[in-house]
Amino acid sequence: MEQKNDKKVIRSWAFFDWANSAYNLVITSTIFPAYYTIITTTVQHGDQVSFFGRTFTNTALSNYALSFAYLVMVILMPILTSMADYRGNKKTFMKLFTYMGSLACMGLYFFKLETLEFGIICFVLAAMGYVGGVVFNNSYLPEIASPDQQDRVSAKGYAFGYIGSVLLQLICFVFVLKPELFGITDLSFPPRLSFLLVGLWWIGFAQLSFRKLPAGSPNYVAVNKNVMRSGFQELLKVWKQLKHMKFLKRFLPAFFFYSMGVQTIMLAAAGFGEKTLHLGTENLIKVILIIQLVAILGAIVMSRFAKVIGNVRVLIFVVIIWIGACFCAYFVNTANQFYALAAVVGLIMGGIQSLSRSTYSKFLPAGTPDTASFFSFYDVTEKLAIVIGLFSFAFIEEATGSMRNSIIALASFFVIGLVFLVVLRSVERKSVL
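The structure corresponding to this sequence follows.
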């Protein structure tokens, strides 16, 4: 096992966020949602599209597709992380999902309305690749950083991710907004080129992480011949251990509910801006850039606050702001209002993601060998939250015809998460006394 807090290893770990966050920004947050909404909104059919013979509202279809991708990963990850823990080859799985996700992004270069089914399939595979890579990358945190450094290291990873994704976004921004500078006449080409560049960026910079990160920490226990059963047995083992961990067993329900809101907002915000507010690609990119840049500050500031007043107190404060942001979003009508809200969301988005990961890591028992299984449980919790959040958002939009009603549902998830955090804080305070 390598020495913890090695600067080169931590930097290479952070570069994985740099590599794959480009997918999160371009594909889930800006150019793809705008491009998708534009090409699937037609004079003849409005916002209705046909997918393998069935009609959907266009934005609901993309949210259902993401929900399906995350559901598949919820089923797969316990099996794969179990294998990774026993065999000590988590980096192999990181590579597998990175290559799958990046190649799927490259495949989106061929996505047009007439190839809708192919585009949605690539969209799903890219999401699965992103999720899989993040799961194994997260599980490295307690291996490469000591508990007192994990808030800082986690924040560094998110900061790297935001900076890297913004750099690629700016490159794509030039092609999308100034195609005439390059003699481009097909307006579908710049977005599709952006998808290709994301795949190349992702697969290229990930090599920096693969070069330095350790292969893993095998437990040298024979893998059950029934790999599927073995994987879920690992989750069951973690579940049983959690019952005896007074902080983690209260933190995870809070994390589950507020993640329904956080992750769904991150994945659905661009569709809301394009479809409900008609911002257009240029303004939408500006909004997401605001969020990304402010999120860098948010991740760093929140980690410093956590050092002073504690992780749970900061999380309670941030979730309260999220609840307010949801109610503000319901009444947003202008681009300037959306910009202001985006700045607030960016600040709390970076903070809540970074702090959630490091809080979970710090609550893990010292010397836990099967970190991949524990982080698999963490990620299964988060991905189940995303499945429910996205499905609820899409279902309510289709049922009521308005994304604004879906936003109110997200606020209720934050409220439930807040209640669990307050309970956790009460237990935390009693343990000190």
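The chain has one domain: 8-214+238-432.
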